[in-house]
Design goal:
single chain; alpha+beta; Structural Genomics Hypothetical 15.5 Kd Protein In mrcA-pckA Intergenic Region, Chain A; Pseudouridine synthase; eleven-stranded mixed beta sheet; 28% strand; elongated
Length: 350
């Protein structure tokens, strides 16, 4: 860390003072307690000789000096090139990427330089990202929970960032997620509309509420496949969820609200490892996005297959399937990267 030197000569008013007390009177010096710690760290001298005790008394004419750390001004995020970015589509305006589970989108408590934002800065440069969300969220258009995987958008300039956020507000940015939930979901499709706000019982959670201050949240779903119960539990259902709004934990909260919590969800789901099929994160994956490019007007459509941990969990109950719905027959080959009749693996990642 950079340091700067403070110095002064002991005058009549300072004669007889303790070293730490006198140093604290110098212009630009930290508090007395901080001066004492710097003395103990060997950062102070008296007449060119290292001071060893904060209580040392000073004499008229002594020259004292102190090395003080310089606090660096807060600036753009530190780039972190060690974080891999799985880019699926990009041009000079925007990026569609697939976020890995465990990656936080932007700096927060406990995460300073290990976030998606830091990785974006490393790849594109801080000045080549949109900054409308704040200095600590360059490029971020919308977020995924830390342990939710899949497709996200990032903006490379302010104009594009604003336009993409407008698409979300207008509900014309099509975002679809895959989740495996507990229980047999009876309808082939459904709609959940409610208010969502911070839970009054557990501040880490969100909750469905009638509070007039709650934010409206709309999720629709299509059932893709159902799986019979095993020795315990009530079976499973694989759903595609369509977000019309983007509230914190929205799908997870809505699924728990209809008593079909996401498998593996540590916050809203079951704690039984067997019922969670060995997963340590929620089975939730952003698999498909489609939108009109704000600059070119072209339709951008990107799909992503399931990551290995979720695919393996699904495979572990494959023998219990009661069959795919018509929506499942349409979606699952692309989602799972299944082979077509020619034997070619169908991975529609872009």
């Amino acid at each position: 860390m950079a340091e700067r030197m403070l110095s002064g000569m002991v005058d009549e008013s300072g004669a007889g003072m303790r070293l730490d007390a006198f140093l604290a009177t110098l212009e630009g010096a930290p508090a007395r307690s901080a001066c004492a710690k710097l003395i103990e760290a060997g950062k102070a001298t008296i007449n060119g000789t290292s001071a060893t005790a904060k209580s040392e008394r000073l004499y008229l004419g002594d020259r004292v000096a102190l090395l003080v750390p310089v606090r660096e001004e807060a600036g753009p995020l530190r780039p972190n090139p060690a974080i891999p970015l799985d880019v699926r589509w990009e041009d000079e305006h925007l990026v569609v990427l697939s976020k890995q589970p465990g990656l936080v989108c932007h700096p927060a408590q406990g995460h300073v330089d290990d976030t998606l934002a830091n990785a974006l800065v490393a790849r594109y440069g801080y000045d080549h990202l949109g900054h409308l969300q704040g200095e600590d969220r360059p490029g971020i258009v919308h977020r995924l929970d830390m342990d939710t995987s899949g497709l996200m958008l990032a903006a490379l300039d302010d104009e594009t960032q604003q336009a993409l956020q407008d698409l979300i507000r207008l509900r014309t940015l099509d975002r679809r997620y895959i989740t495996l939930v507990h229980g047999m979901v009876a309808p082939d499709e459904g709609r959940i509309e409610s208010g969502i706000a911070r839970s009054v019982r557990d501040r880490l959670k969100m909750a469905v509420t009638d509070d007039p201050l709650a934010r409206q949240a709309i999720t629709t779903f299509r059932t893709l496949e159902r799986f019979e119960p095993g020795r315990k539990g009530e079976g499973y259902s694989l759903l595609e969820c369509h977000l019309y709004t983007g509230r914190t934990h929205q799908i997870r909260v809505h699924m728990a609200h209809i008593r079909h919590a996401c498998v593996g969800d540590p916050l809203y789901g079951h704690g039984d490892a067997q019922l969670n099929l060995g997963l340590t994160r929620q089975f939730l994956h952003s698999w498909h996005v489609a939108f009109e490019h704000p600059s070119t007007g072209e339709t951008v459509e990107v799909a992503d297959t399931l990551p290995d941990d979720l695919a393996q969990a699904l495979e572990s109950i494959a023998a219990r399937s009661t069959g795919r719905t018509s929506a499942g027959e349409q979606i699952l080959p692309a989602l799972l990267g299944e082979r077509d009749s020619s034997g070619v693996r169908d991975r529609r990642d872009s």
